[in-house]
């Protein structure tokens, strides 16, 4: 079994493997060019990401700069938006549903390292998938850790560090991120605190 196969299957693997190194280098080269494209080159930016990422629907928009490890492990649904400085470490699959919004500086990390220094120094890593449901909004500076699933319609507050699964239809915030309340029909007419539509 190759190190890449181990990585994708969630087994311990060596990230310093030559194939994985070359694939990360390729993604860096593509994103170096993509991040430097003029803002008016919307079609070219769109096409470059469609080629790099594993799956994207036609209606998506990612603001530069954007960083990822490989690209091919990222799948995004329809009507996806990621604001500035999005980082996705996609050593394991990252699956993002429809109508998802990521605020600036959101990070999705599937990669992890051993707690003990000896295997960490030897270059061992592991990766666990991240799944984000439909209609999710993740606030600025939030960090989504390996193995986390976020349910449909959920809002993750700015600055949150998500270390475990978050259910559907809730507002969750904090470090570590925890559910604060359910989202209800009363929220349909309230924009932000007391502001209404």
Describe this protein with a few key phrases.
7-stranded mixed β-sheet; UDP N-Acetylglucosamine Acyltransferase, domain 1; alpha/beta; about 200 residues; 22 strands; 4 helices; 5-stranded parallel β-sheet
Description:
- This protein is α/β, with parallel strands linked by helices and 197 residues long.
- The chain has a single domain, classed as UDP N-Acetylglucosamine Acyltransferase, domain 1 (3 Solenoid), CATH 2.160.10.
- The chain contains four helices and 22 strands.
- It has a seven-stranded mixed sheet, with no helix packed on it. The chain has a five-stranded parallel sheet with strand order 2-5-8-13-16, with no helix packed on it.
- Strand 21 and strand 22 form a beta hairpin.
- The longest helix is centred in the first third of the chain and has 19 residues.
- 28% of the residues are buried.
Strand and helix layout:
Blueprint: H1 3-8, E1 13-14, H2 18-36, H3 42-52, E2 55-56, E3 60-62, E4 66-68, E5 74-76, E6 80-82, E7 86-89, E8 94-96, E9 101-102, E10 107-109, E11 111-112, H4 117-121, E12 124-127, E13 130-132, E14 137-138, E15 143-144, E16 149-150, E17 155-156, E18 161-162, E19 170-173, E20 178-182, E21 190-192, E22 195-196
